[in-house]
Amino acid sequence: MKSRLQFSLLLMFFGFSIAIQDDNELIGQPEIQCNADTIDMQFRTRKQFNGKVYVKGSYNRPECRVDYSTKDQYGRPVGGIKLNHGACNMDRQRMIAPEGMMFSTVLIISFHPLFLTRMDKAYHIRCMYKEAARTVTAAIDVSNLPTESVQSDLPMPTCSYTIRRDQLDGPILKYAKVGDEVVHRWQCDSDDYGLLVHSCYVEDGQGEKQMIIDERGCHTDRLLLGDPTYVEALNLAYRESFVFKYADRIAVRFQCEIRLCLKEDGGCDGITPPMCSFKENSNVDAKQVVKRSTLDKMNIVPIDADFFSQTLYVMEQEENDNSTSKELMEVSKNTICMSSAFVSFIFVISVSTLVLITAVFSAWLYTQCYRKRMAKNSSIVQYA
Fold this sequence. Notes:
Strand content: 25-35%
Helix content: 25-40%
InterPro entries: CUT_C (IPR057475), CUT_N (IPR056953), Cuticlin (IPR051962), ZP_dom (IPR001507)
Number of strands: 18
Order of helices and strands: HEEEEEEEEEEEEEEEEHEEH
CATH topology of the largest domain: Immunoglobulin-like
GO cellular component, one term: plasma membrane
GO molecular function, one term: structural constituent of cuticle
Protein name: ZP domain-containing protein
Distance between the termini: 85 Å
Radius of gyration: 39 Å
Number of helices: 3
CATH architecture of the largest domain: Sandwich
Pfam families: CUT_C, CUT_N
CATH superfamily of the largest domain: Immunoglobulins
């Protein structure tokens, strides 16, 4: 009786919780404030919000989660949802077009105190901080000869970093297994600019990351990812690899810096492609330094930007390989065949036994009838 009462109370609690949750919802879209050092999010609900707002992947970190059930004297949540730039695994990305810095993160508004439900919402927050264009002028009286300004601006390219299945032009991956063959692809849609892939990291989405390509564009661990291969036009680089992941993590993402250089008049010489096979050769390093210093004097400054691959959800390999599976299938087939033969044998034995029992019973019944008839005939003879 006591257990039934507890179960009923539990059902009533969950029903009451669901009723409260379904009775509340967001009104409109959240308002985002991109401040100088922080990002704030404000939102409205139909009734008082008593849930939580947290950064995706950082729920267990108190500084990345706000509990709206705790209010101050004015009825506002204590602390509110305010994130400093770079906090709670916030992405910090240098952009090419428009030129500037972008901070982005994913905030989740959860109505239930413990679980994610259909009422909850996730928002990808982006704040773009553009670099201010500064023009410096100076008037120098040299002569009365008029000056004419000639300016030619090349459009900045659109670049991307994707992970493809099996080959360079394969489909973009989202799900994979450990050991699957993939191709990392870095590309800029321009014939005027060349690119250098450098400073690459692999991260697990929870703050842990590991460098796999150094600042010079050379690999740090060939088992994870080797040196990128560059096409002749220098606007595309790629590298074959095998899928790997962190232990006890299901997602990985890669971040790389791409350095752009103008190919005209040798603007990419000494920058890309990197000479990774001669990393230990100091003479080659000196030549690269000379070339880059010459480019600096010519005011040809390379442009760096940050790029992220898609998030890749990785499953572990199956415990049994194909050969083992085939063996298991063969054993299963043999077992089925043996079982069928055994059932047939049992059926034959059962039918034979039934026939034998029927025959014995028939013989016994015939014997009984015969004895009764003989006894009857004997009594008639004696009476006569």
